[in-house]
Fold this protein.
Amino acid sequence: MPPEFQDRESHIQAPYAVFSGATLGRLRPEPTHSYRGPFQRDRDRIIHCSAFRRLSEKMQVFTNDLGHYHRTRLTHTLEVTSVARTCGRALRLNEDLIEALALLHDIGHPPFGHTGEETLNGLLEKEGGFNHNRQALRIVEKLEPRYPEFFGLNLSRETLFGQEYRAVQSERRRAGTAASAAKTEPQTERYEHYPRAVLSPFLEAQVVDAADSISYDSHDADDALELGFLELDELLTISLWRRSAQRVRERWSGLTDKEFRRAVIHDLINDQVNDLLTATRERISRHDVESAEAVLGLPPLLGPSQAMAEEKSELERFLFERVYRHPKLTEQREKIRGRIEEVFGLLLPQVERLSTQYQNVLAHEGANRALADWIADQTDRFVREV
Ligand code: MG
């Protein structure tokens, strides 16, 4: 890596950011690049992989037969990246690492979002289940065919560790109980030199989690309104929405419903980002954090204030009841579940015909896992039409 690259980071990043010059490198060592830093290369590898491109034909919450306005998994990913980089720049973090982690965060989503995930999880019960965050690691470590010498993208340890932590957190949430949660610790030994007892990931990974939450809380409401799953008035019962709506009314009058809705969504995101930055700066200065390593030993520092966290929970409960459990979506979910199970049953006897990377999985982890890896890589449309 050129000296001017390191010089640039030392000028713009805070001491608690991850520095490219201090990277722990890749599991397969590679020479450094003449003008790109390690996390820039990670970002480029993710953007150019086929699993990333397929996000354009994977649903976020709404399928493409419902309309043409709403987010796909790809546009959601780009929105998360945008919010995360904005927050990361304000906090003087490593933007290249943030961008790599944000672009990576949903790459393991199978077709049909959480329904696809739950269905594969059920089908892989004996194999330890299916988790989209864990799947992202499988893609970048052993599935993506990109280089002649190996499968996977050979990303930097910091990028893998950020996603590993995300996977562990979601496995803990799914396990629910403290007893089973204790079994899922981040596999820090794979990343060498990290402390054994890690309480949180780097701030660059924490910011991606926060940006994901800010994005889907706001955009799921936006999409649900556009598609007619919700009415504007219903959201006025939610304090976060009510406050943004109030500010929009004070600023403009005579807006159409659509203009009003867009302005409220902008304000919602702005409100959450402002709160996030204020609360995070306060925690960073209270703990007197002086390095990225120190961050790992502290509870998560980056996140909303207590008041904002409660307001976000209120909005999320509302979206859960009124949107995600909407009869139209519930009915669709049943069909999707049946379709994925049908495709799984049809293709299982032919699993030996899948390409080399799946043959490796077949040999070491069995037919169910190999087929789930393959199905997870397909688009919504492909699963419908296969
Ligand atoms: Mg996401």
